[in-house]
Amino acid sequence: MSCFLCVGKSREKIESKNNSSYIEKKQSTISSADKVKIDMHLNLSVNDKSEDDSKHDQLSLDVKNLNLNDEVSTDGKVAKTFTFDELAAATGNFRVDTFVGEGGFGKVYKGYIEKINQVVAIKQLDPNGLQGIREFVVEVLTLSLADHENLVKLLGFCAEGEQRLLVYEYMPLGSLENHLHDLSPRKKRLDWNTRMKIAAGAARGLEYLHTKMKPPVIYRDLKCSNILLGDDYHPKLSDFGLAKVGPIGDKTHVSTRVMGTYGYCAPDYAMTGQLTFKSDIYSFGVVLLELITGRKAIDHRKPHKEQNLVAWARPLFRDRRRFSEMVDPLLEGQYPVRGLYQSLAIAAMCVQEQPNMRPVTSDVVTALNYLASQKYDPQIHPIQRSRKRSSSPGKSEGHRRVTSNDSETSDRSKD
Ligand SMILES: Nc1ncnc2c1ncn2[C@@H]1O[C@H](COP(=O)(O)OP(=O)(O)OP(=O)(O)O)[C@@H](O)[C@H]1O
Ligand SMILES: [Mg+2]
């Protein structure tokens, strides 16, 4: 797999199969509604759904044809269209002080749209970026079909001339990444209960994508920067541009280019291009590890052996006595020992190398709902002895995205 730096900030996106264009020209057999179910003993059983059905699912068809109707409406849920002028007015013409961040798709602004009387986040597609129309269409279609309290709401979009903008509900606390990594001394650290609440909510969002959506969807981009936080740290998954309809019939995977973010991408998928629901479970395990340890999925500032979070964690998983070394020092010992063991056990299962050894989403949800319900109270529970981080934090490198699209190389790092 060849890799190259691409999209926004200093993110590396993974993509393989030597396609010359970021937009998939030749769609891999787009598949759809199957329900891959793996029971508690991890035996694979497939709930058949005919290929014919899948051929007619709207997400597959529209993505194939890059179709967007003026207003996307499914089951009464409507993603509105906005004019460019409306969105410019909402942000004071994309004024600098409305800028909230930037990713691979483009810049994000905070605005207020009068006609819907709502504060919104507006994402403007960067025409020079490598994410493009396909991501835009997939995002609109996926979120128009989705409706869950742990998925960010798409309020509408604008596709006027060359302009492509997405309008979301505004998430006042920003992304999980902002609360976990490179905190300024004055920023409040996340306590144990909040971390478990975020993990459980993210798992429920993922479960919805995997098991409740029709067709079921593989997210492919689960990471801390894509978990947005509402009031009271209510988590919602965002960024569905890489989402892929899951395998159908007796298929267990979708063959596709490898895309995602270093450090979060399952090794089996990265090596074979075979995407499964378990690829998302791996990414979830990485996020859970980040929540527990406070470490980044990839951190080039750390000593070589500690740069990859999963590689660092694997030997430690085998020795319970070393679990306390793994916990985020910023928790200052304020965590439940049993909860730490249990959450590490879940993370260890999720990041197993063999995809069929990873748990199904519903089991992850059950386990995390339980963990989140076990409230830790430092006034009652003993404070644990905590170890210092083994390397000093410096400036963030962020997570880099890579594609193997050799023809287009750009590093628009703004860090
Ligand atoms: N709905 C939203 N409400 C509030 N802030 C948002 C919203 N969507 C995105 N942001 C902020 O905008 C920033 C950029 O988000 P974006 O999703 O474009 O990039 P990213 O997730 O950081 O990177 P990548 O492109 O690799 O996914 C994030 O830091 C996030 O905090
Ligand atoms: Mg994002």
TrEMBL record:
- State the name under which the record lists this protein: Uncharacterized protein
